[in-house]
Amino acid sequence: MTTEDKEFICGPCDYLHTPKTAVVWCPTCEEGLCHDCSVHHTAGKLSRDHKPINIDHYKEMPMQMIEEVKKCLKHDEIYELYCPNHKTHCCVQCVKEKHAKCTGVTLLRKVIENIKTSAMVTEINQELENRMEGLVKLTENRKKNVDRINKQSSELCTEFRRMRKEIESVLDEFENALNEQAITVKNTQSSIVNNTIYKIGSHESVYKDLHSDLQKVIAYGNNFQVYSAVKTIEEALVKRDGELESLIKTSSGLQEINVVFNCSEQLSSLLTKDVQLGMVNTSCSPLEFDFKHTGKTWNGIVKRTVCKH
């Protein structure tokens, strides 16, 4: 997601047709500088206040987030304004055509001049952190469920062996069937939950990547690049949140799955071995959790309570 393998050329040297590899990047001038040009750039009266960054740091930034489209594609005018009603940048013509009735339209440069410490960046950072934290907790919850499935599967066999001492001759054949059933249930249910854990991890990885990319842009990008990264993340979150919400609503691996032994009346009454004495089943209940993000809370939304194996 970065440009670590791309080689950047010194802008001034390239202009003079003597290209050299850039060692720093000037966010203000938006071009690379070789060592010699960097020295002159730092000393120059008009550029001594610029703050070049190491070219390796610039390469770490996710280019697809910070690609700077500064001109309106529809009107071919520079983006100069920002509409707080629609939370978007716009050119003068855009304001006339689409935002004439919007209040609070202001200069884009004022919006982004302190963007690294702004509420916009703070909020999007918090959104990413909330999702990562929520998915970590959800993953831990699911792992505990797998442990419980394994433990309960073992415990039910122990309980059965206790009963077998009293009815040994009747239960010899049934024990083998029960163990097979318990293994099948354990494998099936563990597979379902582990598959869900994998899917959760995939979403978590995306949010981590977005969060990591944003930190790099905040650390090394200019104001417009940070703004561009935020807008890219906002779009990505709409898509990813929809996929994650769909997973949570539909995945059978997001239920509290418990392995239980249903002892039949026939077993209690010590009837003949031709009667089915019991079976391994699962008891499911809605998963209790909070997964919050702006404007929505997913809380115990998995309401199916019947598990099948």
Automatic annotation (TrEMBL):
Keyword Metal-binding set for record: yes
InterPro entries tied to this protein: TRIM45/56/19-like (IPR047153), Znf_B-box (IPR000315)
Domain B box-type: from-to ranges: 5-55
Molecular function (Gene Ontology), one example: zinc ion binding
SMART domains: BBOX
PANTHER family per record: BONUS, ISOFORM C-RELATED, MEIOTIC P26, ISOFORM F
Name used for this protein in its record: B box-type domain-containing protein
Originating organism: Mytilus galloprovincialis
